[in-house]
Structures are given as structure tokens and as C-alpha cells.
Write a structure and sequence with these properties.
Number of helices: 4
Radius of gyration: 22 Å
Structural class: mainly alpha
Number of domains: 1
Order of helices and strands: HHHH
Number of strands: 0
Largest sheet: none
Helix content: over 70%
Length: 120
Amino acid sequence: MDLVDLVNIIQFVIALIFIAFAGLVVRQMWKSDLGGLIAEPDQSGKASMSRFQLLLFTFVITGIFLSLSLETGTFVEIPNGVLGLLGISGASFVISKGISKNSTKKPQKSDKLSAKDDKG
């Protein structure tokens, strides 16, 4: 067994793992009506667009580059623009989590005191 055969076997195993993971995600989405996969746990099961976007972009980009790698027989270089888009998608998810945490945060005692001082 030479190096090329070993690389092909490794690529095939990686493709199988990716396909199995994608299948599990699709099964979970189908079975439980998106519950827990793209839903925010603290918002009574409402779907999060930023979480869905991150999931979708990740699967699409991974699938494309995996298929290109299997087609050419070597790993394809990922352009910086694609990595930038994934970064923007991830950042929008993190920012939305921060905004939702701030909006559900209860006012602290010092906030209530300063509001009383402004009124009175």
C-alpha cells in the first residue's frame, strides 16, 4: 500500500464521517421539528436565524470543499474570502447571543437607584 492509497482511504473515511454527521443533523431536524438544534434554549424553542445561518454555511462550505478534495484527490486550499464569510457568520452568532443575554438580564440594584435619582 503506497501513500496515495492511504490518502484516498483517509479521505473516504473523512467523507463518511461528514455524511454520517450531516445525516444525524437532518434526522434530528426532521424528527423533532428543529427542537434543540437551531432553537434558543432560553426563548421557549424559537428558532435562531444566526444559529441556522452558521449551521447552513458550515455544512455547505464543508460539503463543497470535501467533494472538491475527493474529486481532485488532494486537499483543496480554502480561499481567505470563504474563511472570512465563515468568520462573519460565527461572529453574528456570538453577537446575537450577547445581545439576547443583555436583553434578558434583570436590572441590578444600582440601576434601580440611579433611575430613582433621575426621577426625584
